[in-house]
Specification:
alpha+beta, Creatine Amidinohydrolase, Creatine Amidinohydrolase, Chain A, domain 1, 2 domains, six-stranded mixed β-sheet, three-stranded antiparallel β-sheet, 12 helices, elongated, disordered N terminus
């Protein structure tokens, strides 16, 4: 699930370290050489191959160029790691020719630090129009009319600015299908980074699980996970730690909870390694679980297994959600997305973004293909009582799904 929800997000470990109680500090993090020490980032050659694939697709579809502003797609194609503000930074990727970067003049040196593709950077000063720079870049690459695509998360003021600067010379189309055709299928290098991120996250959860005791707050448990994550070399921006009744709401609540005997502890966390993400959830009971908690936990574990059993190349991703939901209904949950039961999709795509297409949700007809990556998280939620969520990520192979991390063995051994 999404880890940045403001209701229950745990503060990033770096910012929170000064506030970690002495007992929590004493518990960890585990020491040792960072697991990311030998991690290999995506190479410039791989990024150039991505641009070449995108250009082939644009040529086939008669699209003159793709414009992508700061964000994960800009990183994916060019290596530029930059944030969004009112100042426009974009890549103009033409169907033919070299990539052009348009960015504020005073940001150019910083933007160049991560630029891995090409060297054509066109700065604009504060009193100038970035959109005129973009239109000129299009013209210089031979794109003077016809359709141009925008990456689907590009903000409207940029789309409008380019349209106005071009005086209607171009028609605007969505770049979603172009970008998805490139990003949905992960390369061996991407899979290796995701494997490392998932390994780090599971070990961080293992560390926190062993150190959880009555009296702890969600923030204290999250700080343990964050500290262990950063000690292993993973990037950490917080996560969800839901206790007791808060676990019945997928993204938590404003209720203040502490760990007590019999508490449900639901953690949903991840990290990044060279930009690639993990996403793992574990739920455990402090002390002895009740019969109802055990039954729900076992049902969710079986839901995870059914998702993996259903996943085969060529199968529509939405059918995975359908198969899990059909099983849950036989157990008295639902029907459909109704509560108590599974109120969210069975999983989501994952890569540079924690949530990205395609999605394991009813109606998504995208056929499974080797290289696609997903979460597997068919939780069950009982409002007013508790929720159970187990989540592991996997990638599709020609022979079937392959997990990055093993499924939790049992409620008595959840890690």
């Amino acid at each position: 699930m999404h880890r940045r929800n403001f209701l229950t997000a745990v503060a990033a470990a770096g910012a929170a370290s000064a506030f970690i109680p002495a007992a929590v500090r004493a518990a960890g993090p585990p020491e040792g050489r960072p697991l990311t020490a030998g991690a290999t980032p995506i190479s410039a050659d791989e990024r150039r191959a991505r641009v070449a694939k995108l250009q082939r697709l644009m040529a086939e579809q008669g699209v003159g160029a793709l414009i992508a502003e700061s964000g994960s797609s800009l990183d994916y194609f060019t290596g530029i790691q930059w944030w969004r503000s009112e100042r426009t930074t974009v890549a103009v990727i033409p169907a033919r020719g070299e990539v052009v970067i348009v960015t504020p003049a005073f940001e150019e040196p910083s933007v160049r630090e991560t630029l891995a593709v090409g060297d054509d950077v066109r700065p604009w000063n504060e009193h100038e129009s970035p959109f005129e720079r973009i239109v000129q870049a299009l013209k210089d690459r031979g794109v003077t009319s016809g359709p141009i695509a925008f990456e689907s998360t590009t903000r409207l003021f940029i789309v409008d600015g380019v349209r106005d600067a071009a005086a209607g010379a171009f028609s605007v189309v969505s770049g979603d299908s172009l970008v998805r055709a490139c990003r949905m299928i992960k390369s061996p290098a991407e899979l290796a980074l995701m494997q490392l991120a998932n390994t780090i996250t599971l070990e961080a959860i293992r560390h926190a699980h062993a150190s959880t005791h009555p009296g702890m707050s969600p923030g204290e448990i999250g700080a343990l996970i964050g500290a262990a994550t950063t000690a292993a070399g993973g990037g950490w921006d917080g996560g969800l730690v839901l206790l007791n009744e808060a676990s019945a709401y997928p993204h938590g609540s404003h209720q203040k909870e502490i760990v007590r005997e019999g508490s449900v502890v639901l953690v949903d966390v991840g990290c990044t390694v060279h930009g690639y993400t993990s996403d793992i959830s574990r739920t455990w009971i402090v002390g002895a679980p009740s019969a109802k908690q055990r039954k729900v936990w076992d049902t969710v574990k079986r839901g995870q297994e059914i998702a993996l059993e259903t996943a085969r190349p060529g199968v529509a991703v939405g059918s995975i959600d359908d198969a899990v939901r059909a099983y849950y209904e036989t157990q008295g949950w639902g029907p459909g997305y109704r509560l108590p039961g599974l109120s969210h999709r069975t999983g989501h795509g994952i890569g540079l973004d924690g949530h990205e297409p395609p999605y394991l949700v009813h109606g998504d007809a995208t056929p499974l293909a080797p290289g696609m990556c997903f979460s597997d998280e068919p939780g069950i939620y009982i409002p007013g009582e508790f929720g159970i969520r187990l989540e592991d990520c996997w990638h599709m192979t020609p022979a079937g799904p392959k997990l990055f991390t093993p499924l939790a063995p049992s409620i008595d051994q959840p890690i």
